[in-house]
Prior knowledge:
By secondary structure, this protein is an alpha/beta fold. The chain is built from 16 helices and 11 strands.
Amino acid sequence: MSEANRSRGLAILGSTGSIGTQALKVVCRHPERLRVVALTAHRNLALLEEQARRFRPEMVGMVGEEEAAELRRRLAGTGIRVSAGKDCLLEAARHPGAETVLNAVVGSAGLPPTLAALQAGKRLALANKESMVAGGELVREALGHGGELIPVDSEHGAVFHCLRGEEMENVACIVLTASGGPFRGRSREELVSVTVEEALAHPTWSMGRKITVDSATLMNKGLEVIEAHFLFGLPYERIKVIIHPQSVIHSLVEFVDGSFAAQLSLPDMRLPICLALSYPERWGPPFRRSAVAELGSLTFEEVDREAFGCLDLAYRAGGKGGLHTAVLNAANEVAVEAFLEGRIAFLGIEEVIGATLDDFRPAPLRSLEDILRAEEWARSRAGEAVRERAGEKGTAGKRQTGGGGRR
Ligand code: NAD
Ligand code: MG
C-alpha cells in the first residue's frame, strides 16, 4: 500500500472539546486516511459514549473516575476498553496503534501527555498551547526522542507552513496575528465593567470558554508568543504581535530580505487541524474552498498594550524564562476560572497574574516535578489574590484596581 493510501492511527486527547469535535469532523472527511484508536475526555460522559460508538476506538479514557465507571457499564460488550483517571491521558498518548496524537486538552493538564507522546516517538499534533508555556524547555528536550511536533494553533500552524523549505537563519521575525477579541478598541476604563457574557462573545472564532476569555484579555496571544519561542527557537524580541481583526491571515514570517510570507484562509480551525493530521501531505479541503474576493479587506493595527496588560505580562515571564512561564500560565488558569465564576472582574485577571508573578521566587527547572511544584505554588498564590479581590476574606477593596471585587 502506498504511503498516501495508508490509514493513520490517531489518538485524540480532549475529544469532547471544541478542537476535539472539529478533529473528528476532519476524520469523517477522510475516513480512509484516519483511524481513531483512542479518545479521552474530562467528564462529558454522554458525548464520549456517542463518539466511542461512532468511531470504535480501541480505548477511551475518562479523567473523572465516577463517569469512567458509568461509561464502562454503558460500553460493556462493545470491546472498547475504558481507562479511568488522569493517567488515561498518558495511556492514550503512548497508545501503540497511534502514529499521531492530537493533544486538544485545555490547560497545563496537557503537559504530561505532551511529553509522553514525544518520548514514545509519536507525531504530536499540538493544540494544547499551555503545555508549551508551562514546559517548553522539557518539550524541546523530549523532541530528541524521535517524536515530531506539528502545531495546531492556527498562528503557529501558519508559521510552520510558511517555514517549510526555509532556513531559520533567513528568518528576521515572526508576526503573530490577533483578532483583538471582543473588546478591541476599548480603553482600560471601558474594560472595568465588562461581563462574562461579553467576554465569551468572540467576533471571529468559536472556541472553548477558557481560550475565549484568554482571547478577550489578549493573554491568548501572550501564551502564543511563548509557544512560538519554544516551537521556533527565536528570541522574544523577534516574535511580534499585530492586530488583524478579520482573522484571515493566520500569521506571517518576515525574512531577512524584507519579504513576508503568510498563510490565509477563512477562519476555521478544521484547516490547521487537517494540515497537522495530513502533514507532510495536503488533503482535500476540510471545509469549502473560498474565492480570494471572499477573504475581503485585510487590515492591521498595533496592540493597545496599555489597555490589555496580559500581553506584557507574558513577554515579561518569557524573558525571565525558567519556571516563570509555568507560573504565568497556572495563575492565568486560576484567574480565568474565577472570572468565569463571577468572583473577580475582567481586569482582575491581569492583577491576579501580576501579583503571582511578583511574589514568585525562582527555583531551578530540571524536571516535570519542578514544574508541577511551581504550578501548585502559583495556583495557591493566585487563589489568595482572587480571594482578596472577591472580598472573601473580608479584604474587599484591598490591592484592587479596575473594578475588582465584583461578585
Ligand atoms: P474545550 O474546553 O472546548 O475542550 C477541552 C477538552 O479537554 C475537553 O474534551 C475536555 O473534556 C478536556 N479536558 C478539560 N480539562 C481536562 C483535564 N483537566 N484533563 C483532561 N482533559 C481535560 O477547549 P478547546 O477550545 O477545544 O481548546 C483545547 C486546547 O486547544 C486549548 O489549549 C486551547 O488553547 C487550544 N486551542 C483551541 C482553539 C479553538 O479554536 N478552540 C484554537 C487554538 C488553540
Ligand atoms: Mg491561536
